[in-house]
Amino acid sequence: MSDVSVVSTFSSDDECAQAILSLEHARMQGYRAFFPFPSEKILEANTHVRRLPRSPVRLWVLLGGITGFLSAIALTVGTSWEWNLYTGGKPIASIPPYIIIMFELMILIGGLAGITGFFFHSNLPAFESEAGYNPRFGGSKFGLVIRCEEAEAAGIESLMRDAGAEDIQREA
Amino acid sequence: MAAAVETNIPPTYVDIDRSVQRALAPGGLKYWLWVLFCAFLTALGIGFWTNQIYKGLGVTGLTEPTMWAPYITNFVFWVGIAHSGTLISAILFLFRSRWRTAVYRLAETMTVFAVATAGLFPLIHLGRVWFFYWCVPYPNQRYLQPDFRSPLVWDFFAISTYLTISTLFLFMGLIPDVANARDVATGWRKTLYSILAFGWQGTDRQWRNFSMGYLLLAGFATPLVLSVHSVVSWDFAMTQLPGWHSTIFAPYFVAGAIFSGCGLVLTLIIPVRRLLHLEDVVTIWHLDNLAKVVLLTSLIVSYSYACESFMVWYSQDPIEIVTFNQRYFGPQGYLFWIMVTCNCLIPLLLFVPRIRTNVIWLFIISIFVNIGMWLERFVIIAGSLATSTEPSQWRFYTPQVTEIVLTVASFGWFLMNFSLFAKFMPIVSMTELKEGISWLRQAVRETYPYRKAA
Predict the structure, then answer these.
(1) At what angle do helices B151-184 and A95-121 cross, to 10 degrees?
(2) Could you report the per-residue pLDDT of B127-186, keeping only the tens digit for each?
(3) Which has the least CB within 10 A, A82, B164, B237, B339?
């Protein structure tokens, strides 16, 4: 049973990524990394250690885009059939000009769905701080919070120190 | 794995935070006087608009055949201004351009407020604005047929989508920076930033979804930016009117939009970096690159002018020739030549590196670009309409005080919103500057010789 958190602070994303990779050897997946910008190194290390698939946000965007496209077909073609006035000798439902509406609604609904997916999968809005969060992690430092059993804590701290942690604290 | 980033070479992460957060310090008396002045212009515009609503469009100089003049010019101008924001934030993001990081937030902010300003002008132009919803293309019970074949309906969808996506893009990028500001803010600002940050803490899970969402939004915004100004150009090009009916309009308008938008980014960023003390993060190197984009798009716009004229001459269509003859040498031909001077000749100065790296020159050139691009839209819109019919019915538009005040008020409205945003929200992205800190350091290094030369 995990009962302590080891909070390590790093001054660079290289060190933080290295620390995450070192957790793989220790078979530790119960960690949370905090970093001030989307560091590719940390994201790659995290994906590698946790064997993560690509973010599900892309599926939201895909489904939103398809929904928007289909909605635009329904809106344009459906409305034209309902108001079936011949103008300029053109067909009632003339697809080429409708493609513009389809494109715009595909982007609109896809974008809105993407933002919704981002919020949903990122647990936002979050009303409580994650354990171990420190405001420094939003500014200039990189944090790694590892939940482990107290007996494992010393080993974890050693790993973090080897990876270059400048500060290590143990929290209940 | 890439080489490790040194953490102790200036500017450091802390330096970036300090520079950007310093800009969020409460504004002084001069700042509030400026905001008040912009608010006064806005209020003046509201007053004149109210008068126009009460008395009708007769208070303007709009009359047959020139029913589209400064209001639609302002609409196209502000939509065009918006485009560089998306170019810098989305398109250059996809291309991993190094210099965009310091200027993209300002450009995005400009985009959102410019589209919001542009959206007002079709309403102002309507006259009976309370019937605006009659124009909204949805199936209804009023025997009004929403004609999805009309470019004006395309425009409605394009502008609405563009405003929404631009706002989302700005909002999403702001979240990590607002969270950063939240962690150091106090008082009501902390409350404001806490609400807008949505509890963001920069966890691996949040960044993973953020990166994907932001990338896809940028991917969506890129074709959108091209489509929107193409659609705006088709408001004109799809008609049979000489001077408007041209296949070159879509790319020509897109290039012009990016040109004018980058011009306004320069106009805004030069005072902003000085007044908010952002010289350390928005360096001369960034301005130099922005100036290169202005120069490139100026050349494209100049080429478009030449192509347009060549096509008219080559077609030997007598009506087109008369229209363009009037455009160049008619009673308002001087506007065309001012436009050419501002858009084609003055930007050529940017070929000189010393001018590209001198903020005063850049600022002056950017003002000329803004004037030139406003005139371009006016010449195309009002000039073509004035000579579109039988010569006996030709009438050149003469502005009245209402249109002049509303045009000036649109700048007041835009600058008021922009100034408030710049003081209350991080106007430079701390997140992306940190991500590309090695590039920023290079920029600071490359800036030094310029400073020395100056």
Answers:
(1) 10
(2) 889 988 887 877 778 777 778 888 989 999 999 999 999 999 999 999 999 999 999 999
(3) A82
Interface A–B counts its CB contacts (< 8 A) at 191
The pTM of the full predicted model, rounded to 2 decimals, is 0.91
pLDDT at B90: 85
Residue A147 pairs with which residues in a beta bridge? A5
Does the CB of B191 have a partner CB in chain A at under 8 Å? no
What confidence tens digit (pLDDT) does each residue in A63-106 have? Answer: 999 999 999 999 999 988 888 878 778 888 889 999 999 999 99
Residue type at position A152: E
Mutate to test the interface with A, among B22, B183, B208 (most CBs of A within 10 A): B208
Domains located in chain A, CATH noted: 4-55+135-171 (3.30.70), 57-121 (no CATH)
- Using CB atoms and an 8 Å cut-off, which of residues 114-153 of chain B contact chain A? 138-139, 145-149, 153
Residue numbers in B near A82 (CB within 8 A):
139
Name which of B164, B209, B432 is nearest A55 (Cβ-Cβ). B209
- Cα A47 from Cα A164, distance rounded (Å): 21
Over residues A2-52, the pLDDT tens digits come to 588 899 999 999 999 999 999 888 777 789 999 999 999 999 999 998 888
- State both tokens at B405: 């005040």
- Burial class for A88, CB neighbours closer than 10 Å (0-12, 13-18, 19+): exposed
Q: Strands, DSSP E only, in B114-175?
A: none
